[in-house]
Amino acid sequence: MATSPSSSRTWEYNVFTSFHGPDVRKTFLSHLRNQFNQNGITMFDDNGIPRSENIPSALIQGIRESRISIIVLSKMYASSRWCLDELLEILKCKEDVGKIVMTVFYGVDPSDVRNQTGDFGIAFNKTCARKTKEHGRKWSEALDYVGNIAGEHNWGNEAEMIAKIARDVSDRLNATLSRDFDGMVGLETHLREMESLLNFDYVGVKIVGLAGPAGIGKSTIARALCSGLSNRFQRTCFMDNLMENCKIGLGEYSLKLHLQEQLLSKVLNLNGIRISHLRVIQERLHDKRILIILDDVENLVQLEALANISWFGPGSRVIVTTENKEILQQHGINDIYQVGFPSESEALTIFCLSAFRQTSPPDGFMKLTCEVVKICGNLPLGLHVLGSSLRGKSQADWIDELPRLKICLDGRIESVLKVGYESLHEKDQVIFLLIAIFLNYAHVDHVTSVLAKTNLDVSLGLKNLAKKYLIQRESSIVVMHHLLQVMATQVISKQERSKRQILVDANEICFVLEMAEGNGSIIGVSFDVAEINELRISATAFAKMCNLAFLKVYNGKHTEKTQLHIPNEMEFPRRLKLLHWEAYPKKSLPIGFCLENLVKFNMAFSKLEKLWEGTQPLANLKEMNLAVSTHLKELPDLSKATNLESLNLNGCTALVEIPSSIVNLHKLSELGMSTCESLEVIPTLINLASLERIWMFQSLQLKRFPDSPTNVKEIEIYDTGVEELPASLRHCTRLTTLDICSNRNFKTFSTHLPTCISWISLSNSGIERITACIKGLHNLQFLILTGCKKLKSLPELPDSLELLRAEDCESLERVSGPLKTPTATLRFTNCIKLGGQARRAIIKGSFVRGWALLPGGEIPAKFDHRVRGNSLTIPHSTSNRFKVCVVISPNDQYVKFMELELLCRCKVIGNSVNSSDMKFNLFRVFEYRTKHLLIFHSSLTFIDPSEVSRKIVLEFSSSNQVLYILECGVQILTEEEEDVDSITNEESDSESGEMSDKEDDEESYKSQSGEASEEKDEGISDDDNHKSLSRKRMRITSAPIAEVQIKFVVDGETPNLAA
Question: How far does the signal peptide extend, from start to end residue (predicted)?
Answer without folding.
Answer: none
